[in-house]
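User: Hi! I'm working on a homework problem where we have to compare a predicted structure to a textbook description. Could you give me the structure for the chain below?
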Amino acid sequence: MTDVDKARHAKLCQMTGKVDEAAPMKNLKKVDCDLLPPCSKTVRNKLQRAHFVSIVWGNAESAHPDGELDPCDYGWQMKGGNYVPVWFSGPSVPCDLFEDEETTDVADQEVQNGTEDDVAEYEESNSESEVEWNDDSGSEDEL
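Assistant: Happy to help. Predicted structure tokens:
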């Protein structure tokens, strides 16, 4: 699988199991989203920030190590006089999520058909790295 978003979707499907048509959100409540890989927009912002930092470190011996580059072009934004990371850009839900029912039914069928293949492919490639679900919402790592 070469698409980050497809891998994220396949992992979500693997974590939630079979979707119950009567209560589609039932299994989603048990998912720890921290275990999902980031979406492509988040990965892009992280890579841009890492690239900017590598440019600065690569020019550390010069008087202007940023090379007159604008950090805002590399995944940062100015807030309160400080640069802070841009964590996510763009809409948070797909545009087609709120389309009319006829279009949505066709899109749902296409997603369901592709999802089984994506999940099977993902499970084959990551069978040794499965994470057990824990009902304890707080982990020891977070403390």
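For your comparison, note the following. The first strand starts at residue 76 and ends at 79. The longest helix spans residues 101-125. Good luck with the assignment!
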